Amino acid sequence: MSWRPVFVALVLAPLPALAGGLEPFQYMPVGDLVAGSGEGAPDPVVYAPGMRFPMEGAGFANSQVWGNGGSQGPGGGQCDPVNYNYPWRDNYCETRTWDMPLCPSGDGHQGQDIRPSTCETGVHWNVSPADATVTNIGSYSVYVTDAAGTRYDILHGASNLVSNGQNVARGERINNVSNEFGGTPTTIHMHFNIRQDVAGLGFVYVSPYLSLVAAYEDLFGLTAGVGTLDGTDCMAIEGWSWDPTDPDAATEVQLSFGGPLDGTTPVVQVTADIPRDDLCDALDSCDHGFAVEAPLSLRDGQPHAVHAYAVDGGRSQVELEESPIAFECPPPPVPDGVRRWLASPEIVSAWDISPLWDIATIDQPTIDAIGDDRDFPVEPVLVVSDDDPSTYWLMDPGYRRQVESAAVAEAWGLSLDDAAVWPASVLADVPVGTPVRAERFLFSGPDGRVYAMDDAQCALTEDGQLDPDCDLDEGADETADDGGDDADPPGTGSDSDGAGTGGSAGADDDSGGCGCRQGAPGGWWFAGLLGLFVIRRRSV
Amino acid sequence: MAVVCIACDSTPSSAPSELRAAAPAPSDLEATAAKPSRGTMVGGQSMRRIVAWPDDTQRDDEARERLSAQARTSVDDAPVPVLLPSAPDLVESAVVTSGAHWTAVSMQAEGLNVSLQISGQAKIYPHIKPVPATHSVRGLDGFVTRNEGIWVASWIEHGVAYDLELECADQEAAACADREALMNFAESLQFVGGRGAQR
C-alpha cells in the first residue's frame, strides 16, 4: 500500500520552561529517515494511542548512528547542539542487518532513538509510558507491559528505580537516561520500542514514531479544539468539535469505547465536518458535526461508555464537553444457519474482518444452540475458471461456492480483481456447495471465539465427492415446512432486513438437506492445489 | 508553542469511511441525513487468541518444582501456557507476572537475562497482513531478530504468541554469541503450567 502521512502546522498553547528556546516543536514525517540511512516505514498508525512520552522532560528523537558523533554521521560529537534540537526524525527501520517484518526492506532498526534535553548521563529520567507492570529488567533494558499487553522497551538506562513485577503508574520514573549497552559504547539516549502481538505476525516491533509525536504534544498541553459529545442512540454517536484558532477548518475527533484513551480501548477517528444549523450562529461556521455508527460488537444490550476527544493534526487530544456518555443497544437478530469457527486472529485478519464493526456479541446459550460445523477457511481463495471468467467461486475446502454478485463479494471483503484463474477441468472436479451468503454475519460470545454463520453443506464421500443422497430441494422444502416464509433457496441470503435466513437446511449438520450439485469424481482438492501453479492475477 | 511537521503536506492514505462495506445493520437503523461514519481505527483492535492447552502429560514437573512458591502460584494462574527452560539457576530466579490475557517471565543468572512474553490477545490492523515466517523456531513458523544486542525469537504455539529474548551483560558472552544459542535455548523450553492446564 502507499503511505501518505498527514500533518498540519498548528498554533498551540505556550509551552512552559521545558521547551525553553527550542520552540516550535518540529518533526519530520514518519518514515523520513536521514538520507542514506535506509528506507523508512511511512506508517501512519499510532500504535499506542494515549501513551505518555517516555522521558520526564523534553527529548529529541533522531538517529544516533547517522547523527553528529555517530559512526555514519557527518562528524562532530554526540553533544553537538544540532543533535539537541528539533525537528525530530524517525529512525525506525534505519539500516541494520536484523529481520524486521514491518520494515520495507525486511530488516532494520526496531525502535526510535531519543536523546534527553541535554547531553548528560544520569541526570534525566525515563518514565513509564503507561500504567503498567515491569515485566523484565536486563542489564541495559527495562520492559513494562500495559493491561492490553503492549510492551514498551526502555533501553540504555541506568540506576533503575523499579523492580521486576512492580506496578508502575503512567509517568512514574523508571531510571536515568544513560549510555549503558552491555559493554559496548553508545551515545546518551533512550532506545524506545513498542512491541505488540499483531495478527499475522505474532510479537513484532511496530513503529513508535507517531505514538511518540502524539505523546509529546499531549505532554506539553497542546490544545486541539473544543466541542461537545451530544449524545447517542443506536443509530449514531453524535457531537461537534471546532478549533477556535482555525475556525473554518474541520477538526478530527477520536472516540474511545469502553474507557478513556489509555491504549487498552478501541479508538475510532472521524472528521467533524457535517453541516449543523445549530452551529452556524454560535460559531459562525457550520460544518463541524460528527456522527459515528454504534459499533456492532457493542450492541449487546449492555451499557457502554464512549469518550470523545478533539484531536489536532499531530494527534494531541482534548476531551469534549459531556464526555463520556453511555449507550445501550439491543443485539442484532441472529440469522439461521450453522456456526463455523474462525480459529485465530490471523484468520480474522486474512478475511479483513473488524472485531469492532463486524462481529456481533451474543450470549453463550444462543451460540450453543446453533449447530457447530467445520472451521472457517483460513483465508479467502476466490477463483474463476479459464473457460468462464465471469463466474466467481469461493473455495471452501471440500467445496466451491458461487459468489453471485459484486455486492456479495463486497459483503465478504472479496476483491473480484484478485480472483485466480484455475483450469476449468480442475475446477469442475470440485463439488459445488451452496452459494456464498449475500451478507456475512459474524458473532462472538463470552469465550472470545469468533464464528461465521453459514449454510451446512452436503457431506462428502471418501473420494471427496458429494453424498449422492444429498438433495437441495428436500432441504428447501424442509425450510418451508419449518415455517419459513422466505421463498429464496437456503443460503442465498437475499433478505432485505439484513438478518438473513439461509441455511436452515442442514442446520443439524448431517440432515441431508443442502444446496449442492455433484461434481465429477476425482481428487479435486489435490488437483486444485496443482491448479495453483497456474494461478495468475486476473485483470478486469 | 507551535507544532510543525516539516514537509508534511499530504493527506492520509486511509480509505474514507464511506468506502467501507456496510456492516449488517439492525432493522432499527434508518438512513439519516448524514450517514454515521465508521471513521478509521486508531491503535488497532484486540482479539483474543484461543488457547490450545497442552495436556498434563507434557508438563515438566521438575522445572515447575524449581520455581519459587510465588512464581509457581503465578504460573498456575497464568492465562496462557507458560514455557520455561530447564536450567535450574534461571528457573529459580523466575519472576512471573500476568495481565488478563498475557504472562511474562523474567529470569537472570550469571550475566544472562531471559525474558519470555506470552500473549493471548492479538492486535488486528487492517493494513498489516500475514507475513511469511523467516525462521523455524521450535519447529514452528517464527521470526528471529536482534534488538540492540538482544537476541529475540517469536513464534505461535498452543494458539498463543511467544516472545523469547536473551540479553547478556557482556554482549560477547557465549549465550549471546549467535543465533544458534537462541534457537537452542528456545528448543529447550518446556511447558510448566497455566490456569487451563489439566491436572
Outline the structure in words:
The complex is a heterodimer of chains A (540) and B (199). Chain A contains nine helices and 31 strands. Chain A has 540 residues and is α+β, with helices and mostly antiparallel strands. In chain A, strands 3, 4, 6, 7, 8, 10, 12 and 13 form an eight-stranded antiparallel beta sheet that branches. In chain A, strands 16, 17, 20, 21 and 22 form a five-stranded antiparallel beta sheet that branches. A five-stranded mixed beta sheet of chain A has the order 24-30-31-23-25. In chain A, a hairpin with a 2-residue loop joins strand 27 (388-396) and strand 28. The longest helix of chain A has 11 residues, at 209-219. Mean pLDDT of chain A is 84; it is low at 1-22 and 475-540. Chain B is α+β, with helices and mostly antiparallel strands. Chain B has a single domain (47-193), classed as Jelly Rolls (Sandwich), CATH 2.60.120. In chain B, 15% of the residues lie in helices and 35% in strands. In chain B, the strands form three sheets. In chain B, strands 5-6-7-12-11-10-9 form a seven-stranded antiparallel beta sheet. Strand 2 of chain A pairs parallel with strand 1 of chain B, so a sheet runs across the interface.
- What is the CATH level 1 assignment of chain B? Mainly Beta
Looking across the biggest beta sheet of chain B, what order are the strands in?
A: 5-6-7-12-11-10-9
Number of helices of chain B: 4
Indicate the structural class of chain A: alpha+beta
**Overall mean pLDDT of chain A:** 84
**Helices and strands of chain B, in N-to-C order?**
EEEHHEHEEEEEEEEHE
Uncertain stretches of chain B = 9-32
Radius of gyration of chain A, in Å, reads 28 Å
Radius of gyration of chain B: 22 Å
Range of strand content of chain B: 35-45%
Q: Main beta sheet of chain A, described?
A: 8 strands, antiparallel
Measured as a percent range, the helix fraction of chain A is 10-25%
The oligomeric status of these chains comes to heterodimer
Number of domains of chain A: 3
* Named CATH topology of the largest domain in chain A: Glucose Permease (Domain IIA)
Low-confidence stretches of chain A: 1-22, 475-540
Q: Which term fits the overall shape of chain B?
A: globular
Number of helices of chain A: 9
Task: Give the C-level CATH assignment of the largest domain in chain A.
Answer: Mainly Beta
End-to-end distance of chain B: 61 Å
